[in-house]
Amino acid sequence: MLSMVSFLIIVSFFNFLLFHTLVELFSILVAVLLSIVVWQTYPVSKNHFLMYLGSGYLWVAVLDFIHTIAYKGMNLVAISNANSATQFWISSRYLEAFILISAPIFLTRSIRRELAIPIFGVVAGGIMILILTGNFPDAFIEGKGLTSFKIYSEYLIIALLASSLVFLWNQKNHIDNYILNLMVAAIILTMIAELAFTFYVSVYGVSNLVGHFFKFFSYWLLYEAVVHTSLKQPIKLLRQDLKKEIHDRKLLEKELIYQVSHDSLTGLNSRAMLEERVIEELNRAVRYKHELSVFFLDIDHFKSINDQYGHHVGDIVLGSLARIMKREVRKSDIVARFGGEEFVVLLPETSLDKARELAERLCTSVELETIKFEDEGEVNLTVSIGVATFPAHGLTWPKLLDIADASMYKAKKGGRNQVVVASDDQN
């Protein structure tokens, strides 16, 4: 950028017309690039604010281009004179100010981009017709300089730009800080440029030169804010979307695995997960010649609880029992809801005596726990537990489970709220 500015300074000393043309072409190029880039990246960025700016600045570029080729000394078109060039200039600045003051609306609203460009085109076309037919106010008179219309218009444009700053700042929570800061700086430089354009008497005057330098810097910031960012942002957004998609897929995968492997009501292992873990633990027990015990637990009189209090209280009871079981067993033990009010606990590397001790402790803890529910209601539970051990009572999981289940029913018949350990003759 520094080398470009240095080049423009040197050119301005030797050929103002070339300097003016280069600055204007730069601003036109930025405006056109802005329009192309935001249009192409909109499907990804969905940035309505930038899309609105791009739609409007395309026609600002058109008016600035006509201003450039109509500038005094260019002699490229029939209207090549100071007044016509200045008229196109001031109309372009009016359009730019309107775009900037209205753009913050689209930080929170969507835009129909297929309509935005044609609408701005109609406005720009109307301005061209007014100028070309001589119905637009004079902006510059040879020998006198700027007209009152041109000077007051510049002041009005400055006021509009100042208002656009306020509107933009009020919506700062809806715009990227980097873009916001560059846009604010660009608008301020445009205001300074407009102020400089109120003083010149000759279109080749010093204030005109200064104003065009400020315009150059303003459009450079606009390039950084919109064009450069819009090229980076979609890639960034694509990366973010990809990361989010991967993250969401992992969460979904975890959720699906959890749903399959856990009981939705109690949060305990599901029957399917229990059987998967049983295979692992039985293989390990065989390989290392370890014992492996199992509890088969059933809630006493659970049907009466459902009948008396309702199934919603029954669900609370099941959830509360699950919490008690997880609290009382060891971390290495595997607790699962087997179905209805039945639960199974798998105890790796656990002897029959140790399993009996753990089962009796669990049975006592359940009896001592008071389960509360809504309307100050409460209920006390008891459970019946059957215990069996590998390899003493069974060499396969179905056999081991059947024996533990049979022992649990013995506990039921024996008066409930107790632990019954499988006997050797049950094998």
What does this structure look like?
By secondary structure, the chain is α+β, with helices and mostly antiparallel strands. The chain folds into two domains: 244 residues, Up-down Bundle (Rhopdopsin 7-helix transmembrane proteins), CATH 1.20.1070; 156 residues, Alpha-Beta Plaits. Helices cover 66% and strands 10% of the residues. The chain contains 13 helices and nine strands. The strands form three sheets. Strands 4-5-3-8-9 form a five-stranded mixed β-sheet, with helices on both faces. It has a two-stranded antiparallel sheet with strand order 1-2. Strand 8, helix 13 and strand 9 form a beta-alpha-beta unit. Helix 4 packs antiparallel against helix 5 and helix 4 packs parallel to helix 6. The protein starts with a helix and ends in a 6-residue tail after the last strand.
